[in-house]
């Protein structure tokens, strides 16, 4: 070994002479210059930051710059490409220098091949070397073209791109608080209303007379001939067109928006909201209408007279029309003196033979206060008005506006009846005719009768009249009356921004990666202190290197306590190191491992005298934190009593300062013994040692307390190890021989004890050992031979079990220790939370220590699909957990099964039972539903302990275990149950045919009936039976798979990083990553009979009718039994389960559910039930107010409608899909028995349904279902 070291030193010296011959000073100057070139990276860094900020904050170019770029597009693009090329050159230079310097340092430590050297050269230049092996050539090609790629990305990030900016402004909208000018001109005050005519149009309060032609023309096109959305012009000179209904809104557009346009010359769109009246028109034929045409005894005069439903009986409607016979007359009657002014107004139409479809029609116009969103497309001059759901204050509290608007229709009809024609009648007929054309051209309305077509066309025309008149009055308020009020408007303006997001992100990532690489290399190499002058890119140096007989040769030492290539030692006795004879000072020793050194030359070891305030200790443990910025000291012994030590001493490497972290725990000091540090585990192995009065204040005599606990001066054979930072001591195997040592070192799992004696110094016969004294293998036992192949360390099992749960202790002896070792925002708990996959209850909820609240917390996260709401990781909410965590020292988390509003559910391995289980971990705030569910399951579990239990008990989940865990968000209840593979609904969703094989469907249905029978026998109503709450058990064969085999078959757990929207650090109690639930299932048609083992889950809605009254159902809307709607005063009971059981069996056998509908209302569900099962019981039938929408009084459908009958549903839900999928159909005999059973279970009245026991005895169950269940078992 001595000869080898001398040869290395000779070669290193020879290399240094060669370097000097090249010119050392010249190289140092060049290196300094290249270091400074890294400063050019500040340019792409600043640009990347600005670009990201511009994208995140949606920055846009100011108007002046917008005009400049718009005018000189070509020149700007050329400049962008030049800048992009310069930026890519800077970044590529940085990458090449990093590769060159890193490989030069590596080259100085170990020899390399010519191919590798060629690759390094190609990557550092960059250039393509075609003489290299293929994979190296490919790398060189990538590097050579990297500049072009980066340049292209920068071009995309800097090129101005079209965008839309958002400005806010105000816009005057009609003010209805002063409606004094809105009157019934001229009939009310015998004069024309105030009027203005200007370049923007004609605006008047005499709407019915002044805008007569425009109103009628618009009404004539109220129906579109192709059924499309109607486009109609605004009744002024602004040139705007309404797309769809105007609802009387949008009058301000083009009239009072001049300021908006002047402030935003590039505006493309603006939106605002205003309050108005939404008119709902409904027309019928009233054959008994008393509003009729009567001749006045003269040839050309006719009276339209008679009362309306809202008329004052003392003042019926009366108006005189002129015509050549009554055939040409179309008159509209609107009560001039109604019995009361209300939001609902009536109008009646009497018409002659020329306009027969209009005669005897009667309409209601209901004016409802509403808020409208008005969107204006400026380039296309379109206005779109959308009615909002928000409640609105009425602009017409006295209903005078509604009265005046509706009365205009009578004035219009009177004015537009001529001697030979009625212009109004022609307009109304045109709307009807266009609607008839639309019906004929589409297939969706072919069943409409002529009367229905006529009424719909008339309704469209009346809507057009009313909407246009409301706009006209609103325009008059603005332009004539000057009654306006400001409203906020959002304006969208054409703008330019820098770059596209994808390119901005790409350049930012590249810049970030390069900067991180530079910083990492700078830190790792301590500013490239170990960079050799020898550069293989310099031909002069290659020649000199070759003449030296090979590459650079350097010492390499693999030690412990290594931070950033520097070995740190702390010792009281500097004299133990070569070259230092002072044994009285306290030193921090560090050695730069990137520089040549010799174990025979102490000058290479840098000794720094430690501050006098730090206890003078020897034999300490020294380890680094994860960031390699701080060293921690523990253990050791001193010159005198050290029991006054008050904490853990830390050394800041950057600041080169010592400080104490005060704790209530007093550091354990041991004299002698030996420490072996294993930084990667943050643990130390301690061999031997004792306490005496120099180490421990409580010892006042000559006693020595050895590490093995004996109060005597026995030989030291004890080996133990200290887990840091938990500070737990663990006993290891004894040494083969007694040993006292001075120095300790580690290599993989092998601990070297160097030097030492048989016993302590006062035993003169102790004698000394040769070096090394022993080799102790921490995995096995003391060794007699060193094994260089053992380079990796594996934890002893007891440490592995302890650290599996958490890298931090379950409890801290002192809180200040946790502050020292646990990063901010990290949980030190050994357990974590999870929850059951359960339907969320329809509204956004959050967790708080006091329970559920209706609003989520203020912290917002970047959304992640298919995982729980991240906002529920908060105090009182979910508990963070990771794959591999252990719960209750028994269950190891393997994967996530699902989640819900109140819990998450995890797949875990039970080490005692050696099988998989499901663990549901509730939120810390608790959930009354979960409490109810757990109480039900506990009760069922107690029943299951009794002998001769019911067969259905096997299909009810048991709580196998329950316990609580504590975490950063509170205390969580954990329930252990049998895991499910998937629900029946999920199995069908995973299938393209959505069918189970018939034997499988029979077995599942039989099990479900047995499960319900067991529940009812225990007095429990499930109350939420459906395919989503019936799980298929995880096959027992899965228990034979280890977690690793499970991952091979189903994939590794997929995690997603959790990030806040504001990019701030995550709060305490929020996991850094979340797990996407595993899919263990398969398509429904692939499930075999042996796999058809069910579990009925989700007892959150279950109750006991004997003690609980329930008047509602939270079952899916299509499955809710009818008594919920018609007998709400009667508590639900067991028949409710029979109804949902029948619906679920149907869905198991068939492809589609029995009752169907998208987001159905209660009326829709009842309609489906009547279509399938027939007319409701008479008392319920009469209670159902909506029946006339679809049915005649005898329960049949209105003419033209085709209901899906019971038999038809079975055909298109069960038989036909099975035929198409070539899956076994239900035979005729079985079909009769099955439908008989289901029809009985679906009796409308609950008292007429069979009990579940009677269902069990049905022919279908006995002959088809239960036999398959026997085979399944």
Beta-strand content estimate? 15-25%
What's the domain count? 5
| Number of E strands | 47
What is the C-alpha radius of gyration, as a whole number of Å?
A: 44 Å
Structural class: alpha+beta
Low-confidence stretches: 1-30, 543-561, 571-581, 708-733, 754-773, 802-817, 820-857
* Separation, N- and C-terminal Cα atoms: 73 Å
- Mean pLDDT score: 77
The shape, in one word, is: globular
Largest sheet: 9 strands, mixed
The proportion of residues forming helix, as a percent range, comes to 25-40%
Number of helices: 28
What would your notes on this structure say?
There is one protein chain. The chain is built from 28 helices and 47 strands. It is an alpha+beta fold and 1273 residues long.
Map the helices and strands:
Elements: H1 2-37, H2 42-56, H3 63-71, H4 73-107, H5 114-124, H6 134-158, E1 160-174, E2 195-198, E3 201-204, H7 207-210, H8 212-220, E4 231-233, E5 241-243, H9 258-263, E6 267-285, E7 292-295, E8 301-306, E9 317-322, E10 330-334, E11 344-351, E12 361-377, E13 382-387, H10 400-415, H11 423-441, H12 450-479, E14 484-498, H13 501-524, H14 539-547, E15 562-563, E16 566-571, E17 587-592, E18 606-609, E19 617-618, E20 621-624, E21 630-634, E22 637-638, E23 647-652, E24 657-662, E25 674-678, E26 683-687, E27 690-691, E28 705-706, E29 719-723, E30 728-731, E31 743-747, E32 750-754, E33 774-777, E34 782-783, H15 797-805, H16 815-821, E35 846-848, E36 851-853, E37 886-887, E38 891-899, E39 903-910, E40 915-922, H17 928-944, E41 961-967, E42 970-977, E43 980-983, H18 984-989, H19 998-1017, E44 1030-1033, H20 1043-1050, E45 1055-1057, E46 1073-1075, E47 1094-1096, H21 1123-1126, H22 1134-1149, H23 1162-1173, H24 1178-1183, H25 1206-1221, H26 1228-1241, H27 1252-1256, H28 1259-1272
Parallel strand pairs: 5-13
Antiparallel strand pairs: 1-14, 2-3, 4-5, 6-12, 6-14, 7-8, 8-9, 10-11, 11-12, 12-13, 15-16, 16-17, 17-18, 19-22, 20-21, 21-23, 23-24, 25-26, 26-29, 27-28, 29-30, 31-32, 32-33, 33-34, 35-36, 37-38, 38-39, 39-40, 40-42, 41-42, 43-44, 44-47, 45-46
């Amino acid at each position: 070994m001595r000869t080898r070291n001398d040869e290395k030193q000779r070669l290193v010296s020879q290399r240094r002479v060669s370097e000097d011959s090249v010119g050392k000073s010249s190289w140092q100057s060049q290196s300094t210059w290249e270091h400074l070139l890294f400063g050019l990276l500040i340019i792409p860094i600043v640009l990347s930051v600005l670009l990201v900020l511009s994208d995140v904050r949606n920055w846009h170019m100011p108007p002046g710059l917008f005009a400049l770029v718009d005018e000189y597009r070509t020149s700007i693009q050329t400049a962008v490409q030049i800048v992009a090329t310069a930026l890519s050159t800077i970044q590529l230079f940085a990458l090449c220098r990093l590769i060159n310097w890193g490989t030069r340092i590596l080259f100085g430590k170990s020899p390399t091949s010519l191919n590798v050297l060629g690759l390094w050269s190609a990557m550092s230049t960059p250039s393509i070397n075609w003489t290299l092996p293929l994979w190296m050539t490919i790398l060189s090609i990538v590097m050579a073209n990297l500049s072009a790629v980066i340049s292209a990305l920068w071009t995309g990030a800097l090129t101005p791109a079209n965008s839309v900016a958002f400005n806010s402004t105000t816009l005057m909208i009609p003010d209805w608080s002063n409606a004094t000018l809105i009157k019934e001109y001229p009939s009310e005050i015998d004069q024309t209303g105030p009027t203005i005519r200007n370049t923007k149009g004609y605006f008047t309060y005499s709407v019915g007379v002044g805008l007569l032609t425009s109103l009628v023309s618009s009404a004539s096109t109220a129906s579109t001939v192709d059924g499309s959305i109607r486009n109609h012009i605004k009744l002024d000179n602004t040139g705007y067109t309404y797309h769809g209904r105007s609802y009387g809104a949008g009058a301000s557009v083009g009239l009072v928006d001049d300021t908006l346009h002047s402030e935003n010359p590039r505006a493309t769109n603006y939106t605002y909201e205003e309050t108005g009246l939404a008119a709902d028109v409904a027309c019928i034929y009233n054959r008994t209408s008393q509003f009729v045409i009567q001749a006045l005894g003269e040839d050309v005069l006719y009276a339209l007279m008679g009362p309306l439903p809202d008329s004052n009986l003392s003042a019926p409607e009366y108006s005189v029309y002129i015509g050549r016979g009554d055939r040409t007359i179309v008159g509209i009657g609107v009560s001039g003196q109604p019995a009361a002014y209300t939001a609902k107004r009536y109008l009646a139409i009497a018409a002659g033979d020329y306009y027969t479809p209009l005669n005897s029609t009667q309409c209601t116009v209901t004016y409802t206060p509403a808020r409208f969103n008005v969107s204006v497309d400026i380039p296309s001059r379109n206005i779109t008005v959308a009615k909002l759901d928000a409640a609105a204050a009425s602009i017409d509290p006295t209903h005078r506006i509604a009265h005046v608007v509706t009365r205009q229709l009578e004035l219009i009809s009177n004015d537009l009846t001529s001697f030979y024609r009625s212009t109004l009648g022609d307009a109304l007929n045109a709307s009807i005719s266009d609607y008839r054309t639309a019906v004929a051209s589409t297939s969706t309305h072919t069943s409409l009768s002529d009367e229905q077509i006529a009424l719909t066309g008339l309704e469209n025309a009346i809507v057009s009249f009313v909407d246009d008149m409301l706009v006209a009055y609103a325009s008059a308020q603005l332009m004539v009356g000057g009654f306006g009020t400001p409203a906020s408007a959002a304006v969208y303006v054409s703008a330019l921004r820098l770059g596209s997001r994808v390119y901005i992100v790409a350049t930012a990532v590249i810049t970030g990666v390069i900067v991180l690489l530079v910083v990492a290399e700078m830190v790792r190499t301590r500013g490239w202190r170990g960079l050799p002058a020898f550069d293989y890119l310099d031909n002069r140096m290659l020649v000199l290197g070759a003449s030296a007989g090979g590459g650079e040769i350097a010492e390499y030492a693999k030690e412990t306590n290594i931070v950033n290539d520097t070995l740190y030692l702390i010792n009281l006795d500097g004299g133990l190191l070569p070259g230092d004879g002072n044994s009285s000072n306290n030193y921090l020793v560090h050695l730069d491992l990137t520089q040549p050194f010799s174990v025979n030359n102490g000058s290479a070891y840098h000794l720094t005298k430690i501050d006098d305030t730090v206890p003078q200790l020897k034999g300490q443990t020294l380890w680094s934190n994860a960031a390699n910025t701080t060293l921690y000291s523990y253990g050791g012994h001193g010159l005198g009593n050290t029991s006054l030590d008050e904490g853990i001493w830390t050394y800041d490497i950057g600041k080169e300062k010592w400080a104490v972290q005060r704790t209530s725990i007093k550091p354990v000091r041991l004299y002698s013994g030996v420490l072996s540090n294993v930084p990667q585990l943050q643990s130390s192995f301690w061999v031997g040692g004792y306490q005496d009065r120099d180490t421990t204040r409580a010892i006042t005599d000559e006693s020595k307390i050895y590490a093995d606990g004996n109060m005597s001066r026995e030989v030291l054979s004890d080996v133990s190890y200290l887990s840091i930072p938990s500070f737990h001591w663990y006993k290891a195997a004894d040494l083969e021989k007694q040993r006292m040592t001075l120095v300790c070192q580690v290599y993989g799992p092998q601990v070297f004890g160097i030097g030492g004696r048989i016993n302590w110094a006062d035993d003169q016969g102790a004698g000394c050992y040769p070096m090394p004294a022993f080799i102790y293998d921490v995995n096995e036992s003391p060794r007699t031979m060193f094994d260089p192949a053992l380079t990796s360390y594996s934890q002893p099992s007891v440490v592995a079990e302890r650290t599996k749960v958490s890298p931090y202790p379950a409890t801290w002896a002192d809180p200040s220790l946790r502050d020292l070792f646990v990063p901010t925002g990290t949980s030190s708990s050994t357990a974590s939370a999870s929850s059951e996959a359960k339907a969320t209850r329809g509204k956004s909820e959050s967790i708080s220590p006091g329970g559920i609240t209706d609003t989520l917390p203020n912290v917002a996260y970047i959304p992640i699909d298919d995982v729980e709401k991240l906002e529920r990781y908060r105090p009182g909410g979910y508990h963070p957990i990771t794959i591999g965590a252990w719960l209750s020292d028994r269950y190891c988390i393997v994967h996530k099964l699902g989640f819900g509003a109140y819990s998450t559910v995890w797949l875990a391995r039970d080490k005692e039972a050696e099988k998989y289980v499901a663990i549901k971990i509730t939120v810390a705030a608790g959930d009354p539903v979960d409490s109810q569910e757990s109480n039900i399951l506990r009760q069922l579990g107690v029943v299951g302990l009794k002998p001769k239990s019911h067969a259905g008990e096997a299909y009810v989940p048991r709580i196998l275990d329950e316990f609580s865990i504590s975490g950063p968000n509170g205390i969580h209840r954990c329930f252990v149950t049998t895991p499910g593979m998937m629900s029946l609904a999920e199995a069908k969703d995973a299938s393209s045919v959505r069918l189970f094989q018939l034997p499988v469907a029979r077995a599942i249905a039989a099990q479900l009936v047995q499960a319900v029978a067991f529940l009812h026998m225990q007095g429990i109503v499930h109350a939420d039976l459906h395919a989503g709450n019936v799980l298929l058990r995880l096959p027992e064969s899965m228990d034979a798979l280890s977690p690793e085999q499970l991952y091979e078959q189903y994939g590794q757990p997929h995690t997603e990083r959790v990030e806040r929207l504001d990019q701030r650090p995550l709060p305490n109690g929020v996991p850094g990553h979340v797990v996407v639930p595993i899919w263990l299932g398969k398509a429904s048609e692939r499930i075999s009979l042996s796999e058809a083992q069910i579990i009925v889950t989700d007892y959150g809605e279950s109750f006991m009718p004997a003690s609980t009254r329930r008047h509602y159902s939270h079952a899916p809307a299509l499955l809710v039994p009818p008594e919920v709607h018609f007998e709400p005063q009667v508590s639900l009971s067991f028949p409710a389960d029979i109804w949902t059981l029948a619906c679920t069996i149907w869905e198991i056998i068939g492809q589609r559910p029995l009752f169907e509908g998208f987001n159905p209302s209660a009326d829709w569900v009842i309609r489906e039930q009547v279509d399938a099962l027939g007319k409701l019981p008479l008392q319920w039938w009469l209670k159902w107010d909506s029946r006339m929408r679809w049915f005649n009084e005898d329960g049949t459908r209105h003419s033209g409608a085709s209901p899906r009958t019971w038999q038809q549903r079975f055909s298109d839900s069960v038989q036909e899909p099975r035929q198409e999928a070539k899956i076994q159909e239900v035979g005729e005999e079985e079909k009769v028995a099955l439908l008989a059973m289901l029809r009985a279970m679906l009796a409308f009245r609950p008292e007429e349904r069979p009990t579940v026991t009677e269902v069990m005895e049905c022919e279908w169950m006995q002959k088809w279902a239960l036999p398959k269940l026997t085979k399944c078992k």
